[in-house]
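Reviewer comment 2.1 asked that we show a complete input and output for one of the modelled complexes. We chose the FE2/S2 (inorganic) cluster case, as it is the one discussed in the main text.
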Amino acid sequence: MAPHRSQVVAPLLRRESMGDAYHVLTFDVGRDLGAAPGQFLMVRGAEWGDAPLLPRPMSYLSGGPTPSILVKVVGEGTTRMARAEPGEPFSLVGPLGVPWRAPSPGRRPVLVAGGVGVAPLLFLARGLVAAGTRPVAIYGGRTKKDLPLDDDLALISDLHVTTEDGSRGQRGRVTDVLEALLAEDVEVFTCGPDRMMAAVADICARRDVPCEVSVETPMACGYGVCLGCPLPAAGGGYIYACTEGPCIDARRIDWNRPDHPPRAAGRAS
Amino acid sequence: MNRLATRIGALELKNPVLTASGTFGYGLEYDDFFDVATLGGICTKGLSREPRAGNPPERICETPASMLNAIGLANVGVEAFCRDKLPVLRERGVTVVANIFASSTDDFVAIAERLGGEPGVHALELNVSCPNVSHGGIEFGKDPKLAAQVTAAVRRAAKLPLWVKMSPEAGDIVAVAKACEGAGADALTAINTIRGMTIDVDTERQRLANRTGGFSGPALRPIALRIVWDLVGAVSIPVIGIGGISTWRDAVEFLLAGASAVQVGTASFADPCAAKKVLDGIAAHCERQGTSVAELIGRARR
Ligand SMILES: Cc1cc2nc3c(=O)[nH]c(=O)nc-3n(C[C@H](O)[C@H](O)[C@H](O)COP(=O)(O)O)c2cc1C
Ligand code: FES
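Response of the prediction step:
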């Protein structure tokens, strides 16, 4: 069972910016709320007032008394976070959601990251290394600018990098590398854009390799109340990303149903 | 004497702060954040006769100082609620208002009968105002005749205090309110969300799969307050104010307008302790002013 969630208001300890797009925010919580790799928290500036209104779900990049998150600027909330200065108070609600499942003994973990999806995988990799397993990692982005924290990942994994434009590593996609790496005794952990994870899940299913994904959806609450975070479940119905995920066996999700977002947007109801 | 107590017909609430349906789950989800039994009450997620899966995603999106939702009344169904949720709420001493939804009068009656037999349900809130489902819901809440018919049928089916939740989309909301009062409602709750839309300029599609969604949050507050004001002037049963309440000041506005209690909705997403903070703020305000909730109610009308 996950540890108790709570809400704390904690000051920003530091912000490390990697260009305009990616920022690591570290908070001074003062005590360990007990986050496990793969869990997330709902983050909102305590002084934002009425807008942006909703907190933003963010995977833990690290836990402990000074937890951190990796922010990619995509809208208003993340823009505010990218400009936050040390001392600014934030409301943090966590730890939330299902963490990565424990690695299976005898299987070699392969971590597949896309862009900002690297955050929960870095947290996982640090735990694996501490427990004596150095994972294999595949990290892809459109260009070399879309690979935040690649140096950190390189230190603690056997890393393969891909970019679509060839500006770093192998030209192509993570799946090109994954196909070649898959063996009977591996298991895959992946987080990144939905279509990337769908492709990774598909390859793993065809090769009968276990695949754990960390999903991302819009969220208003983060703990099962608003019902705003569904994904199509294999076999019908929905799973809720915040309580049944974010980390979940890829086979439990129907990646190709017509109502799999974001393609469902705007279809007739 | 309890400065915070308020009366909704026969039901005495220890304070005027409840949580709004659909924003507080079945109550216990917030127990990690504060003791939900300290609130005046909680309104459950809308319960239907059978469990419902809800609408396809995307179901929510943020809009300026507000949000849109098209959840489609996903819920566990009235049976699972009575079996899995209610016993714990009862044991914890939580005042439970069961928000119920159906697309036919028969189903409304069946749900009301089921809940009427359960200890621990303190009132029913009829959702005749959900904008996000294709059958029923809002159709009942827009038409005085239909609203009165459902209210009267549920009135006969269950002895519980009966609240009817008003839709701001009714052409003549005062007529609907009076019809519900005439049909035996003990209180009115206002307002439910109003339909809004947003289009993603990059994909050139609505952001929500349902195309429209219920508009809620701080931006809704002035509209909700005006409607509550109108209803209080038109009916003699209590009115409970809902819409964009985030702070104790917002809540007191509704009390001053004549609401007998308030419900905190979307604000609980921004801050899981919002309802508790509203309650503590009202208590401190009454203390400072040497007044009580009962005295605050309707004071702006005099
Ligand atoms: C995500 C969400 C789900 C809701 N579900 C219900 C529901 O099941 N039944 C209902 O009567 N109202 C429902 N509502 C409406 C609220 O109870 C409330 O009337 C409305 O949100 C306005 O209040 P607010 O601005 O404080 O949120 C829902 C609102 C939201 C945001
Ligand atoms: S984010 Fe609210 S239910 Fe999942």
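Residues 6-96 of chain A form a domain with the Elongation Factor Tu (Ef-tu); domain 3 fold (CATH 2.40.30.10). We note this here for comparison with the apo prediction described in Section 3.2.
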